[in-house]
Amino acid sequence: MAVAVKVLNLQHRGASRSFLAECEALRSIRHRNLVKIITACASVDFQGNDFKALVYEFMVNGSLKEWLHPNLTTVVLQEAPRNLNFLQRLDIATNVACAVDYLHNHGQTPMVHCDLKPSNVLLDDELTGHVSDFGLARFLPEGTHNLSSNQTSSIGVRGTVGYVAPEYGMGSEVSTYGDVYSYGILLLETFTGKRPTDEMFNGDLDLHNFVKAAIPERVIEIVDPVLLLETEEGHTSMRSHNIRDCLISIFGIGVTCSSRSPSERMNMNDVTDQLHPIKNKLLQTPRRGERLP
């Protein structure tokens, strides 16, 4: 069988702690939208140096990041560009939401991922999303949404610039609300095609405010142009007003989840509850006599 092997560079600070955190996390979680670990290896190499590696099931379609932001080398090697259509993006966003909801609310012990981003969402042969990389994951005391006050993010939870919750930068406690923020940014990126670190964002303008200012009247103007091209060429039977309504709902979820104040963000089980009806609406067939977009 094909596998993916993650070899840790133990020269990097915190690598051993990351290895232990990932082993501990993956030992106690099982969900269809989480990458499955096959085995772990902690030994020495031929030079007598410590060696640590994790072996995962192989995800043939790479990461969500590679699909949203293909690099020049990837484009040149491919005969035709790989694009995700509207429904595929919505399915992947729902897959990730279900995985995070499981981590927060349905596992043996509540867990915070701490590094949600497109490069940590891997896609199988059916383009189903699987959350990966639990090197920063933290377990929470049962019945709580955050760590106790003596286990703050100053220990080393930083996440990734653009996706990390703003309160972490001020030393706030690790919490499920931090994952919700990262998910909100990921959702906005998935449908706008813009990274949160895009050079267009500076000063008070960030991805959150960029989308928030466009809701509801201008959502078509901020959507990933690839999706507009898809509808213009008639590759979908979705009605234009359906697409617009679905975008308003999707962007609304992303904006709420990425609010600066943790108390204003949604719970992940509410996110999943709202995403499923959007897909149903998206799949509604056109009425007789109605032109397709």
What's the structural blueprint in terms of helices and strands?
Elements: E1 3-7, H1 15-27, E2 37-44, E3 50-57, H2 64-68, H3 72-77, H4 86-106, E4 111-112, E5 121-123, E6 129-131, E7 138-139, H5 176-192, H6 207-212, H7 219-222, H8 225-232, H9 240-257, H10 268-282
Antiparallel strand pairs: 1-3, 2-3, 4-7, 5-6
Helix pairs in contact: 4-5, 4-10, 5-9, 9-10
Outline the structure in words.
- By secondary structure, the protein is α+β, with helices and mostly antiparallel strands.
- It has a single domain, classed as Transferase(Phosphotransferase) domain 1 (Transferase(Phosphotransferase), domain 1), CATH 1.10.510.10.
- It is 39% helix and 11% strand.
- The protein has helices spanning 15-27, 64-68, 72-77, 86-106, 176-192, 207-212, 219-222, 225-232, 240-257, 268-282; strands at 3-7, 37-44, 50-57, 111-112, 121-123, 129-131, 138-139.
- A hairpin with a 5-residue loop joins β5 (121-123) and β6 (129-131).
- The N and C termini lie far apart (43 Å).
- Mean pLDDT is 86; it is low at 148-155 and 289-293.
Kindly give the count of domains: 1
Q: Determine the fraction of residues in helical runs and give it as a percent range.
A: 25-40%
Tell me, briefly, the overall form. globular
The CATH architecture category equals Orthogonal Bundle
- Count of DSSP helices? 10
CATH class: Mainly Alpha
| Strand element count | 7
Portion in beta strands? 5-15%
Classified in CATH, the superfamily is: Transferase(Phosphotransferase) domain 1
